[in-house]
Amino acid sequence: MKVIITGMNGTVAPWIAKVYKSKGYEVVSFDRTKTNIDNEDAILKFIETQDPRVIIHCALGPVSWAESLARISRMLDITFVYTSTVSVYGNQQKGPFVVSDPVIPNDDYGTYKKQCEDACLAINPKSYILRLGWQIGYDEHNNQMLHYIHEKMKSEGVCKLSSRFYPSASFLEDTAQSIYAVVLNLPPDIYLLNSNHKYSLYEIGLYLKKQHPLIKIEEDLSFIYDNRMFDIRVPIKKLSELIG
């Protein structure tokens, strides 16, 4: 069994690859330096050569790339997964969010992700659309929460985290395990993947400081927002199991 994963140089895809490898899959990285993402015939040829059971699209790229992958997946009867983001909900919207809530992005990233979601579903109604929250890693690298904290420390000496901001957030390993479980056990649909049911960003930061004593954080009260996502269908480890 094979799974093709795009975005293997990114944050989430390598963790998804680890999970699929542990389940006996051969992981094939979609290398855009070798396959022209603007040429659907080239994409089709690559996918037919690999004959995967699943395609998981994590990479950033033109909407047309997502469209091509969704279309080819439908044509070849391959399970297609698109990883989206909580950012499709705009800051003017009030969370927590459930899957039936409208999506009204108000920044470029959220708008782009919404366009990709819509394009995939229009072409392939059996697409899995997985909206992810802020990812938590295990070091200061890649685009995740600890990296944000370290970058703020470098520029400001300390990272201020709001105790009035309740983010959607999950550890990378838990996100990857959840993606595998959703695709294996649930029908195609839009799903919301979030481990944080009750903690502020500052409280999460306090937990991370226990694991990484060198980080410096301070409580901030100025940013008030809640973008937690709730989806009872989704199996994912809760932060409360770790933080207590």
Automatic annotation (TrEMBL):
EC number(s) recorded for this UniProt protein: 1.1.1.133
Domain called NAD-dependent epimerase/dehydratase: residue spans: 3-155
Keyword terms: NADP, Oxidoreductase
Keyword Chaperone: no
Enzyme class: oxidoreductase
Pathway: Carbohydrate biosynthesis; dTDP-L-rhamnose biosynthesis
Xref: InterPro entries: dTDP_dehydrorham_reduct, Epimerase_deHydtase, NAD(P)-bd_dom_sf
Pfam families: Epimerase
Family note: Belongs to the dTDP-4-dehydrorhamnose reductase family.
Name of the protein described by the UniProt record: dTDP-4-dehydrorhamnose reductase
Organism in which the protein naturally occurs: Paracholeplasma manati
